[in-house]
Design brief:
The protein has about 350 residues and is of the alpha/beta class. It is built from eleven helices and twelve strands. Helix 1 crosses helix 2, helix 8 crosses helix 9 and helix 8 runs antiparallel to helix 11. About 50% of the residues are buried.
């Protein structure tokens, strides 16, 4: 694909994004993997492939992109900025990014530091604006709770101030629990939450999703295919061949009995996909979208053709029977944790 080819997008259904003025497609492009090599990277990645994948997702109708300053230590934001730079401003997708994770100055290949100091967040937003080549960020999210001694109230107020000043359009939290959401809401509305959610990692369905549903907080879930386990293309052999610079090679979900259980859930989704004439990946994403409180799902891709593998989820509505069949597979396999059935 020509990196500078004109984008002709195909409209997809949209939903209100909490109380914000944005209406977003049920799937958005996730830019974690396009950051390339770093402490929690997905392995080496070709930048031209990344740009082509992002532009293809926009051409297929997705109207938002999620990234983070820490992905590739800033490289993911640079790639997103390059991918959307030639799109007319009125046609550009919404850009969502995150703050609060910094490279460890003592070990740039080590795990990042969780920092909430307001001065740091202000530096980060300016750096993100520059890398993304935008004048305002559509959604700015605290990536993880701070571990530098900064209270939640302090860093949340810093994000609310950035919104009031017009640096960002909306503010949200990522990887925060119900108690933290309540504490933030007492200061100012939490526009959005970004939690992990899949048919394997279901814990947020117990408390956080209902809280967001009740408080007008939009939810964009990440890893709806559980980092590829539910994509339909994973296997024991593929898990064993993951390179050392792919974080999944060190993750317990990709090993032993846990991997076997997880692939049984993927098998159940494959059966639904075959019946519906779609892909296992689309079923996995649609499963998350069927839960009350979920606005949309973040889905990654490293190549344009991978976008085609999950784009059907933008339209796909699973039936009660299909959801029950998947729930039965979750329960019989013992895969993951958290509620398995929509109440």
């Amino acid at each position: 694909m020509d990196d500078h080819a004109p984008i002709v997008s195909t409209p997809l259904p949209v939903r209100p994004f909490g109380r914000t003025d944005m209406r977003i497609t049920r799937v958005g492009f996730g830019s974690w993997a396009v950051g390339g090599d770093w402490a929690v990277g997905w392995g080496s990645q070709d930048d031209n492939d990344s740009i082509a994948a992002i532009r293809h997702a926009v051409a297929r109708g997705t109207n938002w992109i999620d990234t983070a300053a820490i992905y590739g230590l800033g490289h993911s934001e640079e790639i997103v900025g390059a991918a959307v730079a030639d799109i007319p401003r009125s046609e550009r997708p919404y850009i969502f990014t995150k703050c609060g994770l910094l490279p460890n100055p003592a070990d740039r290949d080590g795990m990042p530091l969780q920092v909430g100091a307001p001065a740091s967040l202000r530096r980060e937003v300016e750096d993100s604006l520059r890398r993304l080549r935008v004048e305002r960020i559509d959604l700015y999210q605290m990536h993880w709770p701070a571990q530098d001694g900064t209270t939640l109230e302090t860093y949340w107020q810093a994000l609310l101030d950035l919104k009031r000043e017009g640096k960002v359009r909306a503010v949200g939290l990522s990887n925060h629990n119900e108690a933290q959401l309540k504490a933030a809401e007492a200061l100012g509305h939490v526009d959005t939450l970004q939690p992990p959610f899949s048919a394997i990692r279901r814990d947020v369905a117990a408390a956080e999703l209902p809280w967001c549903d009740a408080h007008g907080t939009g939810v964009i879930v990440y890893s709806p295919m559980q980092a590829g386990l539910l994509s339909g293309s994973f296997s024991v052999e593929r898990a064993a061949s993951l390179p050392a610079n792919d974080w999944r090679s060190r993750n317990a979900d990709f090993k032993g009995e846990a991997l076997r259980r997880n692939l049984l859930v993927a098998d159940a989704m494959r059966a639904v996909a075959e019946e519906r004439g779609t892909t296992t990946a689309s079923v996995a994403v649609a499963w998350t979208l069927a839960w009350p409180g979920v606005t949309a799902a973040i889905v990654g891709a490293r190549l344009p053709r991978q976008v085609d593998g999950w784009i059907d989820a933008a339209h796909l509505m699973l039936t009660e029977g299909e959801m029950a069949a998947i729930a039965s597979a979750i329960e019989s396999s013992g895969a993951g944790s958290g509620p398995s059935r929509v109440k």
